[in-house]
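BUG-338 | component: ligand-complex export | severity: low

The export step for iron/sulfur cluster jobs runs without errors, but we want the raw record kept on the ticket for reference. Input record follows.
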Amino acid sequence: MNLQSQELAYTPQVAAATVRLYDKVAKVVPKVEWPVYAPYVQAINTLKRDKSAVILAHNYMTPEIFHCVADFVGDSLQLAREAAKTDAQVIVQAGVHFMAETSKILSPGKTVLIPDLRAGCSLAASITGADVRLLKQKYPGLPVVTYVNTSAEVKAESDVCCTSSNARAVVEDIARERGVDTVIMIPDEFLAQNIAKQTKIKIITWKGHCEVHERFSAADIRSYREANPGVIVLAHPECPPEVIAEADFAGSTAAMIGYVGEKRPKKVVMVTECSMSDNVAVEYPDVEFVRPCNLCPHMKRITLKNIREALETGRHEVTIDPAIAAPARRAVERMLAL
Ligand code: 13P
Ligand code: SF4
């Protein structure tokens, strides 16, 4: 049965049970939309309790997911840490497929669900395990540092994983341990180039790009500043180096949120995926957000409707061949141990 085609009703009971949650997101969710979301919010929160499930949601989820049903929110590193330590039997990954695979790698005994199997990632799609094997043949002896935005098969071919939160530390740590001055860093060319500017370690890159962040240009940043004098520009390191050079601060999604929380700029622009500003604006009503952004079509595949369906039906369960999961886990755990 396709539960997504069944509409849940906005009854007076649902309205009363969800009124506090709406108050939280009223600034970013129009009132006319709430009757569509509220029945699903209530159904999901009940199902989570019944099924001993947690929802791990990435910072790019829409506000009704991020603020109203998620148990834990964060960047890729924070979500991986949470997946490793949660007691829940079922993890619903409100994010993209590589994140669900990372959760499964770290919690092999748990059921990990992704609400839409099509929630992919242009970076993960840019490289295969066979590509990594060829790279290792071409550069024998050099360690492979792999961004978590990759398939389990690619992680399994790698020495260590990294996220945008810890990439520089991971690169320097593995280079020191192996006694080399060069590492292979895959698959995000721009992240690798941005990290190369911060370290003496030489980095061999791959030509993968994030389809959201590659579209920002230095001219975009200059035009935001022209239109908004005094605006603080925060950019994600998956953006091209010319964009990072124009920004006031570069960091992972969690690092950008941390910057806003700590510095409370009057006006800020987050050069990243669109839902970030909505989610952060809820927490910081004193900060004005300028909102040019690019949508991630993969992240946007996750909706309240398919989260509810995942909890009801157990679809879609993420499984990983044990022969791949074991070496992939070593690479992820090595990163988490840092
Ligand atoms: P972080 O949240 O780890 O910064 O990653 C951003 C991203 O693009 C995830 O797909
Ligand atoms: Fe992949 Fe970019 Fe979407 Fe993140 S925002 S899932 S890196 S395409």
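Assignee comment: Attached the raw record above. The chain has a mean pLDDT of 97.
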